[in-house]
Structure to design on (376 residues):
């Protein structure tokens, strides 16, 4: 089978690779992280002008209508550069749910501005007891005279600190329901903080937040199924980001080993170190193969798509961290200095491992999906 990118995907890859090469060295990245939002507003506007914010969104809503492969092309390039923009939280989660919902009023209120880069979204669904089980939540909404009243709390909301609209999962009459909540609503309290890789997230409290009657994006089984699909696609996307980071770490490590000299010759000449770099290459290629498999099965709607995605995420979590730790070791003391970005890649890969279920959780999920609940 031919797993090559098509012409449009190749152009997309070339355009984002060129952009990232010009805008993302270690110093520039630190400048972006130092901004109040934790990312560059100018770079985000560039994303919008280049059309990248529209790639995964449906054509019917003004988006490009791209596939999970198109999204993975973008995310892989962002992984190679350790990009800090909230593409995952704002576009792949928040905007996707708004676009795929059945509320035209909410779409009209937010989607155009999101695609223009002037509005940010986030998906608030995790709670302290959730453990990646989407319907394990206490957040509830009740009907009020003017619409709905929302009460509860959410944790680790990606892009929650900068979001203008929050897509919030809550129970309404015992039905799983998604609400569009303006982030500046009375009763919304956000506690923002950084993850180890510098990304901004927030714990959010909703204290009897009053919502209008047209705030429901989707509800019932359809809402839960939509969230499951979006989370699955986001899991593939962050795995592609991890593969991009692993490839860049391998490239940087090989180049460093050919310039750093010890005992009168490049350290890359030592067979023991060559073996370790081969292990890095093998791990990276294994993850790429699993990425291709997951993309194919998901795109084709195949029965094993969920287990393929779990296998991919499990291996990315395990091998991503191993490749990054090996890169740090092979760079020696330089691997943990700010002069190089090696440590930034390690921290990003450690964060990716925790997203949507770490490697241990994904292995149990794979076993349950492939062999039955008793295997988990």
């Amino acid at each position: 089978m031919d797993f090559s990118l098509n012409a449009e995907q190749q152009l997309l890859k070339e355009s984002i690779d060129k952009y990232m090469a010009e805008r993302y060295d270690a110093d520039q990245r630190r400048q972006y992280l130092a901004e109040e939002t934790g990312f560059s507003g100018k770079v985000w506007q560039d994303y919008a002008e280049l059309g990248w914010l529209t790639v995964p969104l449906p054509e019917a809503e003004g988006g490009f209508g791209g596939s999970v492969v198109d999204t993975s092309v973008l995310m892989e390039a962002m992984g190679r550069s350790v990009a800090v923009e909230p593409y995952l939280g704002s576009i792949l989660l928040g905007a996707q749910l708004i676009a795929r919902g059945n509320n035209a009023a909410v779409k009209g209120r937010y989607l155009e501005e999101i695609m223009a880069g002037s509005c940010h979204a986030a998906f608030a669904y995790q709670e302290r007891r959730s453990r990646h089980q989407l319907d394990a939540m206490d957040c509830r909404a009740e009907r009020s005279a003017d619409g709905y009243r929302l009460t509860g709390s959410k944790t680790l909301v990606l892009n929650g600190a900068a979001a203008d609209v929050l897509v919030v999962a809550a129970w309404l009459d015992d039905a799983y329901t998604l609400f569009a909540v303006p982030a500046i609503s009375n009763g919304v309290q956000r506690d923002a903080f950084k993850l180890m890789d510098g990304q901004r997230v927030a714990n959010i409290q909703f204290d009897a937040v009053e919502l209008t009657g047209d705030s429901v994006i989707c509800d019932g089984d359809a809402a839960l199924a939509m969230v499951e699909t979006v989370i699955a696609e986001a899991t593939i996307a962050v795995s592609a980001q991890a593969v991009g980071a692993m490839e860049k770490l391998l490239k940087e490590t090989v180049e460093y080993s050919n310039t750093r000299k010890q005992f009168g010759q490049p350290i890359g000449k030592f067979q023991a170190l060559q073996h370790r770099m081969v292990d890095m290459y093998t791990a990276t290629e294994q993850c790429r193969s699993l990425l291709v498999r997951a993309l194919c099965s998901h795109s084709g709607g195949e029965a094993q798509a969920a287990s393929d995605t779990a296998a991919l995420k499990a291996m990315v979590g395990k091998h991503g961290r191993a490749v990054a730790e090996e890169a740090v070791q092979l760079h020696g003391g330089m691997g943990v200095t700010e002069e190089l970005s090696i440590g930034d890649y390690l921290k990003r890969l450690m964060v990716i491992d925790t997203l949507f279920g770490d490697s241990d959780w994904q292995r149990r999920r794979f076993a349950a999906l492939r062999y039955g609940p008793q295997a988990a």
Observations:
- The chain has three domains: 7-116, 121-222, 226-375.
- The chain has a mean pLDDT of 93.
- The longest strand covers residues 200-212.
- The CA atoms of residues 138 and 152 lie 7 Å apart.
